[in-house]
Design brief:
This protein is of the alpha/beta class. About 50% of the residues lie in helices and about 10% in strands. The protein contains 13 helices and six strands. Helix 2 runs parallel beside helix 12.
């Protein structure tokens, strides 16, 4: 599978001409494979991601921020589970952003996201993110009252500019920003919500509030369309991922992350000459304590 080609097919790094209605949520790039074969491709990507993550963590020069946005049931949680399986938890973190707390509301809208950024050498996932401030808050502007922010017609344009500046700053300072919008149809969401109702083990996932947000579907699609156009840049691209087929969605996400890490090409740090000398002395001491080299060690 051509990882870079599949990732590029859904990458938007100049949103000026983007239109969400040009993306078919059923699209699977004409890939004619059975589900089990898709799992094999995904498993191969995941294995290479684990290897690159270890090098990224050892090198500690760059961090990776993965942003997942979607309507409910689009598959953010399952994408994390399947694409990030096996990641070393020492260098991997997930932050799910719910409604802001009182303390968070006392700061600007980017504050709680800035303090949750991954450190150098780490991969961080924002399961929902600062983009909720131009999605949920835009669809429900009454939430601005909690933020003690007065609405004005240029508010969203100003927030888009703040987000662009924030992500440009991250990029300039060693954070790779990868943003994914998992795009599904309203009918597919209805089927998945019904599955949650009909499957006892999934009851915990169902919330009546999902139906309330579903009533504003067109408003959300318009908001997503606008935010991609205003915030897709080469330093912080959006991947608009057709997600009616979960296997394809996971494959695209894994390819995009893998392609970015391949381009970064992290390496294990080389030992300094002083470190090599110190290791030589440590070896001699340890061998002495064991009465010679351990069995099987040259």
């Amino acid at each position: 599978m051509d990882v870079a080609k599949l990732a590029a097919r859904h990458r938007v790094d100049d949103g000026k001409s983007f239109r969400l209605d040009s993306v078919d949520p059923f699209d699977h790039d004409g890939i004619d494979i059975v589900k089990d074969e898709a799992k094999d491709y995904l498993a191969a990507n995941v294995a290479e991601l684990r290897d690159l993550q270890e090098k990224l963590y050892a090198e500690r020069r760059t961090s990776v921020l993965i942003i997942l946005q979607a309507m409910d049931t689009a598959g953010k949680d399952s994408a994390i589970e399947h694409v990030m399986t096996g990641m070393n938890p020492q260098g991997f973190q997930i932050r799910s952003f719910k409604a802001p707390s009182h303390a968070e509301l006392d700061h600007d809208f980017l504050w709680r996201h800035a303090v949750a950024l991954p450190a150098r050498g780490h991969i961080g996932i924002f399961n929902r993110s600062h983009y909720e401030e131009v999605l949920v808050v835009r669809v429900h502007p009454e939430l601005l009252e909690n933020q003690r922010v007065a609405y004005e017609p240029s508010l969203w344009k100003k927030r888009f500019k703040s987000i662009r500046n924030f992500e440009r700053h991250l990029s300039r300072n060693g954070t790779i920003v990868l943003k994914f919008f998992l795009h599904i149809t309203a009918d597919e969401q209805a089927r998945r919500l019904l599955d949650r109702i009909d499957t006892q083990a999934k009851h915990w996932k169902f919330e009546l509030g999902d139906l309330k947000e579903r009533d504003r579907w067109e408003d959300y699609m318009a908001a997503y369309d606008d935010l991609v156009r205003n915030t897709a840049r080469d330093y912080a691209p959006w991947y608009v991922v057709p997600s009616n087929n979960k296997w394809y969605s996971r494959l695209v996400i894994s390819c995009a992350i893998l392609e970015a890490l391949r381009r970064l090409d992290p390496h294990f740090p080389d030992a300094e000459l002083t470190d090599l000398e110190g290791m030589k002395q440590a070896r001699e001491r340890l061998e002495g304590e064991l009465g010679g080299a351990p069995e099987g060690v040259p």
